[in-house]
Request: fold
Amino acid sequence: MIYLQHPMVEECIAPDAVDEDKFDRARRIGWLDIDSISKSKVLMVGAGAIGNEVGKNLVLSGFKDITVVDMDRIVHSNLARCLFFSDNDAVEGKLKAKIVAAGMNALDNGVVAKPVIGTIQEQDEGFIRQFDIVLGCLDNVLARLHVNSQCCFHGVPYIDGAMDGFNGKVQVIVPSAGPCLECGMNDTHAKIIEQRFSCTGNDISLFLPKIGAEITTTCIVGAMMVREAMKLASGKQEWVIKNVAYYNGANNSLDILEISNNPECPNHS
Ligand SMILES: [Zn+2]
Reply:
């Protein structure tokens, strides 16, 4: 048998041995800590378009312990952006969280992906505290702000992804180390919250128009989110996006905007 010797490796290895480890190529990226990644407990909030991409990327990056929270059912308009959904899933109106979790489990026998059916707001107080990293794959501001405040309170890093047509946005919130989602909230978000608590102080239902979406921007947002999770799980907190990345697929630009802590933000008191 022929043995090869890598110039950086002292021991000789059989040529086939390098292909027996699924993560052999990833392990060659020196700083990437695949063992820590595999032990991280991850929460995905949302199992829609971004959630499908994030779920796929998490598994292929070596994450093993993944919980998926979503309450929605699959419809035909999801199918052009969702790897794990089929026509039949839409016909039967299957639950997104169940199908995404099943798809992740099927990608790797070592993965334990668990679906939780419901909204993130319905989960027990302290639910988020059990996780090492939270990825927000949400389509509404109120749920985002809820996850953001819970992550800040419990000290859990939060990676939020969003898109609108060919525009994508990824924000990384490292509690106590910088600004949160609410610190960077704009007037539109504030208006939605005002509407939510108008008149009676009770929640009201809002009808928000559907926004444009397509798969390539979804892929880029989902990939950026999981890449930041890989950095956090590998102990490279200093390398994460500070604080918001804006991607524009129409003009091929990526801009990083550093935001400040808002002294009036309730999440830092
Ligand atoms: Zn804040």
